[in-house]
Amino acid sequence: MNAASAAYALLFYAAAAVFAGGLGYRIFGYARTPAPLKIPTTPAPVTRGGVALRLLREVVLFESLFKSNLWTWACGMLFHAGLALVLVRHLRYFTEPVWGWVAWLQPFGVYAGFAMAAGLAGLWVRRMAVARVRYISTPSDHLMLALLLAIALSGLAMKFVAHTDIVAVKAFALGLLYLDWQPLPPDLLLYAHLALVALLMLIFPFSKLVHAPGVFFSPTRNQADDPRETRHIAAWAARLEPPR
Amino acid sequence: MAADVKAPPLREFPGAPQTLAPGAMAASKPYVATDKMQQALGFPGALADDWQQKALGRMGELLGKYRSLKVYMDSCVHCGACADKCHYFIGTQDPLNMPVARQDLMRSVYRRHFTLAGKLFPKLVGARELTKDVLDQWYTYYNQCSECRRCSVFCPYGIDTAEITMAAKEIMDSVGYGQKYSNEIIGKVHRIGNNLGLPGPALADTLAGLEEDVKEETGADVRFPLDEKGADVLLVTPSADFFAEPHVDSLIGYAKVFHAAGIRWTLSTHASEAGNFGLFIGSYEQLQKIALRIREAALELGVKRIVVGECGHAWRVAYSMWNTLAGIGAGGTDPFAKALQSQLDARYKQPMHICELTWDLIQRGALTLEKEANDHRVVTFHDSCNVARASRMGDAPGGQFEIPRAIIRAVANRYVEMPKGTTREATFCCGGGGGLLTDELLDLRVKGALPRMEALSEVAERHGVNFMATICAICKAQFTKVLPYYGFKMGMVGGVHQLVSTAIRLGPR
Predict the structure, then answer these.
(1) In this structure, are B420 and B445 located in the same domain?
(2) What's the confidence (pLDDT) of residue B508?
(3) Is there a single domain that holds both residue B207 and residue B140?
């Protein structure tokens, strides 16, 4: 164990705590806040089951974005699908023995890294090239793309440019899980990759990245279209009813 | 037509504007409500010294009461999906009329005052203090949103700018910075019973005149009953239907339908307004106060059904919110809701849209229709935003698109659709909704109508369309005013029940 390894171990505990705690706080806040009026964007499903399907299409296929703009949809899809596969691929560092389906997905995960980077690059080009999107962009929008792209590129570099000792990385990761700290290989690329990931986890709950849980709580998407059949009323609104 | 207002030229390839015109609409703002109008609704008369603190306090309160606002403040990723979807942006090219930019006027304040990132790094995340300049910008640009929800269709998180506009208007009202047009009208509803300030005797007089007119036209004794206890149906319709053109032709249409079907119906002086501008200013309290008038009239008159006339936002409030606000609907188990719901006939949808009622009668063969009577018209249908994206008709999703079209096809031979992407849930607002139907905003209204006018012009040139039917009082008034700016006749717009009125045959069959 060296000082750098210990620092990274502590960093990841802190990042995981902030990530989980911050996100939990957000989700709790959304769940606790009432939606006093029925406002689904219609045509909307009329049953809860239909709503679940609508949310699934929104989350998996980006249905609304598809209707809006094919370029943004394609780049967003490349990035998110790529990221999902890459995350799954990384499960191999946290499981021993590696789960069968995770092992099976490994070769796809490699290409997913490129897809993720390509999607991010496309979104960034669009942010700079389209006047409308450039107008609404804040510095943090650019930095967020830079951060994600740096994570993707540093990861790809360890696979295709300068291999790192992944057996040792896995030992470090498992050590974190089982509170049996192991040294991290002294590799600058790896240090950079892990530091950026920790940074992402730290800012996630305080940034626009909370769109991930947000979409599930969006009343225009998660409400059933049944206002004539059921009486929908929030607690604070019920108190406003006139006495009879 | 006002000489200083000019329509933008129709474009060969309608779509997203490729250039931005920052500040183009910075001077467009409606008159501010007077202190009397404000105080009549329980709002402060004017901005006080501590307005900023009060505004932020109100904002915090709304963030705790409305999940929509809370989630939408956090979730936007600036992807730009909504950016080119707003008719006001398309018509003005002012970037602050992009839905995301309009939202950011509030989001920037939210970040500065309510988030850690904005408190620590305001520049980085685009956070701003709520200064007087920012408040003025709110007043200018939140009064350039018609709350039509077109952006919410395309947002990957369903962010609805209307929710944010409504919150902004409520915050501004709560610090004494309200909009004259909407707040004056709400005052009239409370004082007199309708948006136009038409008192009971004048209403009775108008209706008697209509009975005479219809008798002359058809020879039938079609009645326009007012405040008749024991009627089966209470019709609640926008007050514009009582005398504005072309609105009144639809009122005549409803009366003929009731007459032909033998339905006992009545209007009410107390509830002589379907419109509910409480929606436009985002005030739950005002929404409810106005909706309660319908409840009171229904209980007073003992009606079995409540039917709503051709009005877009009124149908949104009636369909989506009356059950919540006033217990008009079904499924209520509390004493408040049950008091009314046990009186209403559960075999019918409560409330019911006049188009649902008419379509049901047509399907059952209860009406005699002569389609040829409309042969001088080539008809198209303009979906009104609040009906299209915030309500439903019939049993299946999308009934709000199919039922009015089915009625038109049943009463007219020549019907044409406007281009895809401009109808149904992607319909463009007329440019006058959301409390913007006021003369001082005419420039904005004319420009905001651009995408609809482009679509109309295409079917007018290609298919000779000469009648655009719609089921909204605001659409009718707005188009009557702006059509001439685009070289169309103002009489080109009318109601679906105006077409029904032309085709329906009364008397013995």
Answers:
(1) yes
(2) 60
(3) no
B3 in a structural domain:
no
For residue B381, the enclosing domain spans: 369-505
Assigned domain for B451 exists: yes
**Do the domain assignments include residue A239?**
no
User: B16-42: per-residue pLDDT in tens?
Assistant: 888 999 999 999 999 999 999 999 999
Contacts of the segment A120-127: beta carbons below 8 A, 24+ positions apart? A120/A75, A120/A79, A120/A145, A120/A148, A120/A149, A120/A152, A121/A149, A122/A71, A122/A74, A122/A75, A122/A78, A122/A79, A123/A72, A123/A75, A123/A76, A123/A79, A123/B79, A124/A149, A126/A71, A126/A72, A126/A75, A126/B80, A127/B78
Range of A70's domain? 3-234
Element (H, E) at B45: none
**Cα separations in angstroms, B17 against A209, B246, B378, B461:** 29, 33, 31, 23
Does B157 touch chain A if contact means CB atoms closer than 8 Å? yes
Question: For residue B405, is it within any domain?
Answer: yes
Q: What separation in angstroms does the CA of A149 have from each of A87, A145, B124?
A: 15, 6, 19
Largest CA distance in chain B: 78
The pLDDT value recorded for residue B507 is 76
Domain of residue B447, CATH code: 3.40.50
B200-238: per-residue pLDDT in tens?
A: 999 999 999 999 999 999 999 999 999 999 999 999 999
Q: Identify whether residues B176 and B65 lie together within a single domain.
A: yes
- pLDDT at position B356, please? 98
- Residue among A103, A65, A209, A44 nearest B83 (CA): A65
Residue A241 maps to a domain: no
pLDDT in tens, A1-14: 689 999 999 999 99
Q: Which of B65, B110, B124, B324 has the highest number of chain A CBs within 10 A, making it the mutation to test binding with A? A: B324
With CB atoms and an 8 Å threshold, state whether B80 touches A72. Answer: yes
Q: Which domain CATH number covers A178?
A: 1.20.950.20
Residues of chain B with pLDDT under 70: 508-509
Average pLDDT of span A236-241:
88
Q: Which residues pair with B340 in a beta bridge?
A: none
Q: Is the pLDDT of residue A126 over 60?
A: yes
Q: What is the pLDDT of residue B227?
A: 97
Total domains present in chain B: 3
Distance, in Å, from the CA atom of B285 to the CA atom of A237, rounded to the nearest integer, reads 9
Contact B80, B100 (CB under 8 A): yes
List Cα–Cα distances, B67 to A169, A215, B24, B163, in angstroms. 42, 12, 33, 10
The reply to whether B20 falls in a domain is no
Interface A–B counts its CB contacts (< 8 A) at: 233
Kindly identify which residue of chain B lies nearest to residue A40, measuring between CA atoms: B390
Nearest-neighbour CA in chain A from B319: distance (Å): 7
Q: Is residue A243 pLDDT above 80, yes or no?
A: no
**Shared domain check, B229 and B289:** yes
| B382 and B287 part of one domain | no
Nearest CA in chain A to B17: A132
Same domain? B127 vs B203:
no
Q: Is B48 on the interface with A (CB under 8 A)?
A: no
Please list every residue in chain B whose beta carbon sits closer than 8 Å to the beta carbon of residue A65. Answer: 79, 81, 154, 156
Q: Which residue of A has its CA nearest to B351?
A: A228
The number of domains in chain A is 1
The HSE-up count of residue A127 (CA atoms within 13 Å, CB side) is 22
Q: Of B164, B183, B202, which marks where a domain is finished?
A: B183
